[in-house]
Amino acid sequence: MQVSPEKVVAPANLPIEKITLDVTGMKCAGCVSVVERQLSLNPGVIDAQVNLLTEVAVVDCQTDIVDPVVLVEQLTAKGFPSQLRSPQAGTSTPTSESTLTPAQRHEQEARAQLRQLLIAGILIFFSILGHIGHWFDGPMLPVLSNIWFHWGLATLTLLVPGRPILVDGWRTFWHQSPNMNTLVGLGAFAAYAASSVALFFPHLGWECFFAEPVMMLSFILLGRTLEQRARRRASASFESLLALQPQVACLIGSSTPITEVTEQPGIEIPVEQVRVGEWLRVLPGEKVPVDGEVVAGKSLVDESMLTGEPLPVSKQAGDKVTGGTLNQSGVIVLKAIRTGSETTLAQIVALVESAQTRKAPIQQLADTVAGYFSYGVLAIASLTFLFWYLLGTKIWPEVLLPMTGGLAHNMPMPTSISTSPLLLSIKLAIAVLVIACPCALGLATPTAILVGTSLGAERGLLIKGGDILERIHQLDTIIFDKTGTLTTGEPTVTDCLPLPESNQIGEFTSHRLLQVAAAAESGTSHPLALAICNKAQQQQLPMLTAQDFYTEAGLGISALVENQRVFLGNAEWLSEQGVKISDLVQAQVQNLLDAGKTVVYLAVEGLLVGVIAVTDVPRTGAKETVKLLKDMGFRVMLLTGDQPNSAAAIAQNLLISPNDVIAGVRPNGKAAAIAQLQNQGCRVAMVGDGINDGPALAQADVGISLNGSTDVAVETAGIILMRNRVLDVVESIKLSRATFKKIRQNLFWAFGYNVLGIPAACGILLPVFGIALSPSAAGALMAFSSVSVVTNSLLLRTSKH
Predict the structure, then answer these.
(1) What is the 3-state secondary structure (H, E, C) of 168-182?
(2) Catalytic residue among 22, 291, 367, 481
(3) Which of 324, 476, 520, 774 has the greatest number of beta carbons closer than 10 A?
(4) In which element (H, E) is residue 378 found?
(5) Do residues 353 and 238 make contact, with C-beta atoms less than 8 angstroms apart?
(6) How far apart are CA 701 and CA 681, in angstroms?
(7) Does 686 score more than 70 pLDDT?
(8) Across-strand partners of 560?
């Protein structure tokens, strides 16, 4: 029996690496369970996640302990041909005789499946022609109505279009990992065998139903073809993302004068061979090969694949360009700054593919059932046969009468007018085998995640997996960082107010105050520091010499400016340094705070000499975002290190309740503030953008990071908004909710179908209503089940969310 083993917990001090494998041969959720179990049994493997739809396995393991080649060989020996995914996203390194990429393999499988379906269609056409006389009490067609002709059709069906199903079913059964092919193959072969016994031993009085295996396998193949097409549509967005990756780059020399560099012919090399620092030429109409910085030329670049914005962006020397974007108008030369798996596009592809492999916790029940499913169905089919053969036909003998006719050929035994109990029991057992659909269970979650995450990637919303989708569905509180998230993150200086006390150490005009502050702030890159330095540059104030910088995150900075100790920061920071702030100054400052401005105090040699007021305007769409989130039922909060009055003014402007403002929080206290809300029962999402937000993003149930964020924020966030639009917070939550809704619908249908279909196939309706599912009808229902799950997921692309 196949069950998932417990996950290994890696020691905290051991490094972890990811191994990605392309795995073929998986047919249903049972196969996924077998592959995950096989991978997890290897020493050093911490976790294994397998996606049935994309045929990808991601293995988390201890570094240098697990040999990927061994994993590949083990899976291949188990009947799941595999190959190692190379570091270049979307490609594979052949480890067997096959050199096909996943896309090429899928195309080849689709063509083979279509050929099998066409052959099966021809066979079922002749089979139906042979039964027209039975259905309409008309004349029998010569040859086509002959029982031996139908025996030949059934034999051809099993040997040609049905052969892969039978072979794979037997192989997986031999390896003790039965799957959907095992159930279908066993059912089709049992129907064929029972009909052959009736044909070769007519004295038994059985009926032949050779049309059943023909129709059954044809319906299965039709369903799989439709399902495969739907799968391809579901993965089309991801494949188009892979197609954006350029294959070649034009390498040129970097010693040529800038005025002539765009005219160099260069040499084409594979893009994976480009190294950081090399110069590349990009002609109009070509894709930018790697992330780089323009060193010569000027052009318009289409960045819609990254930002979703249709208008091209002007690029010239000094501007950054992203690999995969399209150069439209002029020749540009760029210096490579990120190559291979480090490029933005490669990281997006990796994030999307990883997201499609990560499962939602709600899938856990389906995974547990999948480990037992095929064995359970075999057991139910056996019990069905024994019940009806030993008891059912004796308790309800009338059930034997309606089973004649239809697709059956009655053998010439005039004394036999009813179905044999043995034959009825076999038919019902076959129907149980065929109607069971582990495939729907296996496709329920990955198809919805595939469509949802791919659709998100098209819109610049990177959602990191099914677990994130489920957590988003449970959220009730959204917390925003202020600077750079709800505001532009580009504050400007509005007031420079020197104090009379400054006369004790020299004349401090507003210009002098700004000049000293800019010198002290030159040692940090905080947004407030940049605002002060920019203001000083705009006024063309000479830069003073400064040294001995010290920064206290979230509070302030100290520096030695022209041999005088300068402290710059909030009131708390200056109080800690022994600087006194008079009541008169606090009254002056209060007016600035009430206006929503952030106040920075400046002290020189322990004496407060002035205050600088800075304001940061709200982002476009920030107010609308807050309103929409409230309309969706969320509690929206503001978390900031600003002083309470300033934070309250910003919050009021953005329609955030004063009770939902948490102000004056140091960076290392943001995670604690979120933890406190979680302890109160809140399910919290944190929206931030800076390195100071990393711990808070990690602490929150879901972290949402804006593009342009630091690597720390991107790494810890569950959703990354590539377009840097705060309104995309709403879009990402809507898409996540819609995707998770599809997951639940699919799982409900997959479980509901099997819970209702299997008892119906067992004959539960037969005694009262005289209804029994034929094997061919069961096969049609099974095919419809898988197709419906995939099709329902595809509706995400057309639904409004």
Answers:
(1) HHHHHHHCCCCCHHH
(2) 481
(3) 520
(4) helix 364-387
(5) yes
(6) 12
(7) yes
(8) 547, 565
Amino acid at 71: L
| Residue 642 and residue 663 in contact, taking contact as beta carbons nearer than 8 Å | yes
Q: What is the pLDDT of residues 112-131, one digit of tens each?
A: 888 888 888 888 888 877 76
Whole-angstrom Cα distance, residue 206 to residue 400?
Answer: 12
From CA 717, how far away is CA 699, in angstroms rounded? 10
pLDDT at 11: 52
Would you state the pLDDT for residue 691? Answer: 58
- With a pLDDT cut of 70, the percent of the chain lying above it is 87
CA–CA gap between residue 425 and residue 531 (Å, rounded)? 83
Tokens of 674: 């979120």
Tell me, what's the pLDDT at 103?
65
- Which spans in 622-668 are helix H? 622-631, 644-653
Q: Which residues contact 575 (CB under 8 A, 6 or more apart)?
A: 581
Alpha-carbon Rg of the chain, whole angstroms? 35
Place of tokens 């040997």: 159
Give the H/E segment covering residue 411.
Answer: none
Q: List the one residue out of 301, 247, 294 whose CA is nearest residue 274.
A: 247
The predicted-structure confidence for 697-741, as pLDDT tens digits, reads as follows 889 999 998 865 555 556 778 898 888 889 999 999 999 999 999
Whole-angstrom distance, CA of residue 309 vs CA of residue 172 = 49
Question: Can you tell me the distance from the alpha carbon of 737 to that of 740, in angstroms, rounded to the nearest whole number?
Answer: 5
Q: How confident is the model at residue 256 (pLDDT cuts 50, 70, 90)?
A: low
**pLDDT tens-digit readout, 206-235:** 778 888 888 888 888 887 887 777 777 766
Counting residues of the chain whose pLDDT is more than 90, the rounded percentage is 19
Annotated catalytic, 481? yes
Q: Supply angle C-alpha 439, 443, 449, rounded to 5.
A: 175
- Above 80 in pLDDT, residue 687? yes
Tell me how far the alpha carbon of residue 740 is from its chain's centroid: 12
Which residue matches tokens 């059956």? 408
Please give the helix or strand (H or E) that residue 268 lies within, else none.
strand 267-270
Coil/strand/helix, residue 157: helix
Q: Is the pLDDT of residue 410 over 60?
A: no
Q: Are 476 and 592 in contact (CB under 8 A)?
A: no
585-635 tens-digit pLDDT: 888 888 888 777 888 898 888 888 889 988 888 888 999 999 999 999 999
Beta-carbon contacts of residue 311 (< 8 Å; ≥ 6 apart): none
Of 613, 609, 549, the closest CA to residue 579 belongs to 609
| Three-state SS annotation for 685-751 | EEEECCHHHHHHHHHCCEEEEECCCCHHHHHHCCEEECCCCCCHHHHHHHHHHHHHHHHHHHHHHHH
Quick one: which of 432, 386, 276, 420 has its CA closest to 340? 276
SS3 category, 541:
coil
pLDDT digits (tens, 9 = 90+) for 367-396: 778 778 888 999 999 999 999 999 999 999
The mean pLDDT value of the chain amounts to 82
Give the whole-angstrom CA distance, residue 3 versus residue 430: 26
Check: CB of residue 661 under 8 Å from CB of residue 496: no
**Beta carbons of 92 and 20 less than 8 angstroms apart:** no
DSSP 141: P
Length of the chain, please? 801
- Nearby residues of 543 by Cβ (< 8 Å), 6 or more positions away: 518, 519, 522, 536
Q: Where are the alpha helices (DSSP H) in 419-506?
A: 421-435, 438-458, 466-473
Cα angle value 298/304/308 (rounded, 5°): 140
Is residue 689 within 8 A of residue 705, CB to CB? The reply is yes
Quickly count helices (H) and strands (E) in the chain. Answer: 28, 29
| Rounded CA separation 252/297 (Å) | 14
Look at residue 787 and tell me whether its pLDDT is greater than 80. Answer: yes
CA-nearest of 582, 583, 561, 559 to 569 is 559
